[in-house]
Specification:
This protein has 198 residues and is α/β, with parallel strands linked by helices. It has helices at residues 2-9, 11-14, 34-49, 66-71, 93-96, 113-123, 127-144, 160-168, 175-186, 189-192, and strands at 20-29, 53-58, 74-80, 97-102, 105-112. The protein has a single domain, classed as Collagenase (Catalytic Domain). Helices cover 46% and strands 19% of the residues.
């Protein structure tokens, strides 16, 4: 587990960025624990604060759409209590959340709360903690594009070591992802994230 943190966490000592900000609206759809959401927002904010990005939490009613949302780096996370479209035997991140992309860029993601609850109970990870990492993963997609990474938060599936690292708060974004996140937040989504290749 420490290897996971070291591999992806080495950037914190070597990269010095000016702080960036992004707006995020979390919109519960259905029966979602308000307490878990509040705790997950705090943990997700800490994950991004570790890479010198500040999340400004906004209400759903304030959220713009389309090009305006992309230009303002304003992301909407819909917390759903229905079933995901994808079925998998492993803890695939596609089972837990999904980011959507259009000509305007990516600014909306769905997070499947029921699946997160189920996985958290099977793997002894706090629901709010797992929710925070799924939110961070989907925000990562909205910032970086649809590709996954071989390690860290942006892996396509989380194995037992990853879930242990999540439980301990050790799973992180990798160095190249941190640099790209800052580049996107310093410019426009269309200029940066659309150049990402799978």
């Amino acid at each position: 587990m420490r290897g996971v943190k070291w591999f992806c966490g080495v950037a914190f000592a070597t990269l010095a960025f000016a702080g960036e900000t992004m707006n995020v609206s979390v919109c519960p759809l259905g029966r979602v624990s308000a307490k878990a959401v509040t705790s997950a927002e705090a943990e997700a904010a800490a994950l991004f604060r570790d890479i010198n990005v500040e999340i400004i939490w906004k209400s759903c009613e304030e959220a713009p759409i389309g090009q305006e949302a992309a230009d303002q780096h304003w992301f909407t996370m819909r917390l759903r209590d229905d079933e995901p479209a994808v079925e998998s035997e492993t803890p695939s991140t596609d089972m837990l959340g999904e980011a959507f992309f259009s000509e305007s860029g990516g600014y909306v993601a769905d997070v499947y709360y029921r699946e997160i609850q189920s996985l958290s109970s099977r793997r002894a990870v706090e629901t709010a903690t797992l929710l925070s990492y799924v939110m961070a993963h989907e925000l990562g997609h909205l910032l970086l594009g649809p590709a996954h990474s071989p390690s860290g938060i942006m892996r396509a599936s989380w194995d037992s070591r990853d879930l242990d690292a999540i439980r301990m708060g050790w799973l992180q974004f990798c160095r190249t992802e941190i640099a790209r996140i800052h580049k996107v937040l310093q410019g426009s989504f269309r200029e940066t994230a659309h150049n990402v290749r799978d």
